[in-house]
Amino acid sequence: MTTTGGPDALRVAEIGKYRVLVEPPRADLLAVVEIAAQVARVPMATINLITDVEQHQIATHGFDASVCAREDSMCNVVLDAGRPVVVPDASLDPRFRDNPFVTGVIGNVRFYATHQLRTPEDVVIGTLCVFDEVPRSLSDEQEHALVALADRVVDLLELELRTRELERSNEQLAAFAGQVSHDLRNPLTAVTMSLNMMGDEIADDDADLTFLLQRAIGGAGRMQSLIDDLLKFARVGGELQRVSVDLDTVLTDVRDDLATALADATVVVGDLPTVVGDPVQLRAVLQNLVANAAKFVRPGQPAHIEVDATRIGDRWRIEVSDRGRGIPKDQQERVFQPLARVDEDVEGSGIGLTTCRRIVEAHGGRIGLTDSPYGGTRAWFELPD
């Protein structure tokens, strides 16, 4: 990271990324300072972020948060100490005895302990601070616990930052896919219409031209399907509706939608659970997995599909097993990559399993493929309660 203007400018830039100076106190940070006070057995704790001119108390326990001038901050004095600082009685410490937080102008701090907040870029942006109005000390265990809590403060700031970046990335991806879909769909529709009109003009006995025309129409149709699949892929896994989802009911709807593909198939369904998630997106997962099981069959054999669920700890594992061609072990992870395909003879865009993974992971779960007991493929995904 490169920032001009020296250490203060670098720290201000780092603090700005987290957006905590412009938003209400966060519940997770408030919980950390409460725990810090309990660990140190003091009545007050705070997370201080120090800019070039001010100290901002972004989460406090035992008193109301405020903003003060940087020169009045006790933490500013030891911000670059490089290690935690513990002061049994600040009124006796030459670094702090004239500080307004000690003299009574702002506060009457006596015991004071501070632990630096260091970002992954190795920039100290502030401190986790605990204090009391009476002298006291900390045990080694208490000090180690407070250092760990200071690290967790930075972890929480980073987690929220990464989540926000991911949401923005998803929004940009969806917008990009929507624009590409719009830009490609209109000319593709015109091409398809023109091809169909040409088909109406071709003589029935012109087999070669009819074959070429049908091949062109089929290619245009596959391109349209790919555009639609890419758009769906960009949109899933973002904003989730979290409600109770009866997977038995969802699978019934999926079988109705796939009635043609499943016309000759045997489908055996066990007891499926009710989970918490987005019903539309979870239906897309089941539909993709069942459709794959119906497509990838052995030559001359109808599909045989089994759908079942197993409880594993605090998760439900849903399995869709077939007796089809199977997928080599060295390909069972690769097929989750965008546009990856194992069998070019079977129609598809190579987006379906990628979309499934994105949906399942957005629900806090995981998904994979293994061999089924019958020589085919077992697709599985796990969802938390």
What does this entry look like structurally?
The chain has 385 residues and is of the alpha+beta class. It has helices spanning 6-18, 27-40, 74-77, 100-103, 140-201, 207-235, 247-257, 279-295, 352-362, and strands at residues 44-50, 54-61, 67-69, 85-87, 111-118, 124-132, 243-246, 266-269, 274-277, 304-312, 315-322, 366-371, 377-384. The strands form three sheets. It has a six-stranded antiparallel beta sheet with strand order 3-2-1-6-5-4. A hairpin with a 3-residue loop joins strand 1 (44-50) and strand 2 (54-61). The mean pLDDT is 84.
Q: What labels describe this entry?
A:
single chain, 385 residues, alpha+beta, Beta-Lactamase, 2 domains, six-stranded antiparallel β-sheet, 13 strands, 43% helix
Q: Could you say which overall geometry the principal axes of the C-alpha atoms support?
A: elongated
Count helical runs: 9
What's the helical proportion of residues? 40-55%
Strand order across the largest sheet: 3-2-1-6-5-4
The name of the CATH superfamily of the largest domain reads GAF domain
Strand residues, percent: 15-25%
Rg from alpha-carbon coordinates: 30 Å
Largest sheet entry: 6 strands, antiparallel
The strand count comes to 13
SSE order: HHEEEHEHEEHHEHEEHEEHEE
